[in-house]
Amino acid sequence: MPDFAPLLDYLGHSQLARMMAASAQAREIAAACHLAGTLVLVGALLPLNLRLIGFWRSTLLADLARVLGQTALLGLVLALASGIALMSQRPFAIAADPVFQVKGALILLAGLNALLLRLVPAWRLLDQVDSRGTISRFRTAGIVSLVAWAGILALMRWPELI
């Protein structure tokens, strides 16, 4: 297992950590951004995953993937950046927490699932074919993503970072 101690030490002693510790308003803004980013991310992924599973077959998957994929990426960047800001206050304590570790593992699973989906040849050809159907790999990716993000949401407010 990699040693994250130097990274956590850097985070805990960073200017970001000092700013977060000194300002309740900064912590509130970071918490609001974390929630907003997560909502944008999951709000975009829910219809995309349902489409991957087989709902709304009359809608071209390529069109949904283009718009909702970019929206999900924006939400992910916002949620990760604000999550790091929140974590900077107590990086070692938070990283050592088993629930946080499960949340991290689920985020990695969701990310790996999304990456592997993009490697499927049929995914790369969505713009060139009628993507009104679905294939078993798309269904599997949709189910894995839904389960992972449901778990992440269940753990989102834990630990209380403020």
Question: Your description of this structure?
Answer:
77% of the residues lie in helices and 0% in strands. The chain has helices at residues 5-12, 15-22, 24-53, 61-87, 91-96, 98-119, 121-124, 136-155. By secondary structure, it is mainly alpha-helical. The mean pLDDT is 90.
**Uncertain stretches:** none
Q: What characterizes the major β-sheet? A: none
Overall shape? elongated
Helix/strand-derived category reads mainly alpha
- Output the helix-strand order: HHHHHHHH
**β-strand amount:** under 5%
Q: How confident overall, as mean pLDDT? A: 90
Classify the oligomer.
Answer: single chain
Note the gap between the termini: 28 Å
Number of strands: 0
- Radius of gyration, in Å, reads 18 Å
Tally of DSSP helical segments: 8
Query: Can you give the helix content as a percent range?
Result: over 70%
SSE map:
Elements: H1 5-12, H2 15-22, H3 24-53, H4 61-87, H5 91-96, H6 98-119, H7 121-124, H8 136-155
